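Collaborator request, handled under Task 6.
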Amino acid sequence: MVGKIFKVVITRPAADRLRKIVDYYRSKASPKIARKVRRNLIDETKRLERLPESKPLLPVKEITEPPYRYTKKWSFKIIFQVHKKDDTVSVIDYLHDKENPKKWEER
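Structure tokens returned to the collaborator:
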């Protein structure tokens, strides 16, 4: 059985964050590691086109509609919202667990 396919859209702030993550790994590790991190985060993001609503809700104080959800790749959370009306998934942010763990919980 084939489920509905969602269009995955990476917002500009999320794309900027991903670029900063890649730049960090390029300067602290190597260009090869940076490419691997980028490729794997993008691959995980693309997987959201199938069954994005099966991912857990992000624990936040403020209730939003649609709710924030997340998926993980290594120590990164990919934060997104599912818009059923137009069958899209909006990627809002890429967040490393050590970066600022309370950033999204305080919303």
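The cover message to the collaborator said: "The longest helix spans residues 12-28. DSSP finds two helices and four strands in the chain. Please let us know whether this matches your experimental observations."
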